[in-house]
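INFO batch 0412 | record 1 of 1 | parsing
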Amino acid sequence: MNFLARVHYMTPTMERDATVWQDVKFDDSGLTYTRDDRVIEAQTRRHEGLRGDVTQALEGEVLPIAKIPDGIAFKPGQESVYAGKGTFYALRYGPYLIGMNMTTDRTFELKRPDGVTEADELVTKTHISFAKPLKVGPRSTVVLWLGDAK
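INFO prediction complete | emitting tokens
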């Protein structure tokens, strides 16, 4: 779990790709992964460490590993489609707030940003109030436009 997300943001007049922080809820396996010195292709053994003048700024960072399904062989450092799976993701990018519930049986609360009291929900095209906590049900995504909120 590195708590990062990739955003591809497009409007009629611009396009942006960004790597941004996201809040991730997950079932902890109790395992961790310590970042090594790979700097170019994290999922391969090909890297620029052999040059000697390029280093990985995050080397040594300890990251938690989400619970792997029972019966799946896994060791920290291995690539696996089951590693890094969150149960709930919350992401704020510009005037947007996104909540994604990846479970089949749990509901999560999408936290209201400070100073924001209402928003437009873009999927259902409804206006919502943050008077009560916003619940995100199983297998659902909420995309909010916060308008001019900072």
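INFO post-check: The CA atoms of residues 71 and 141 lie 29 Å apart.
INFO record closed
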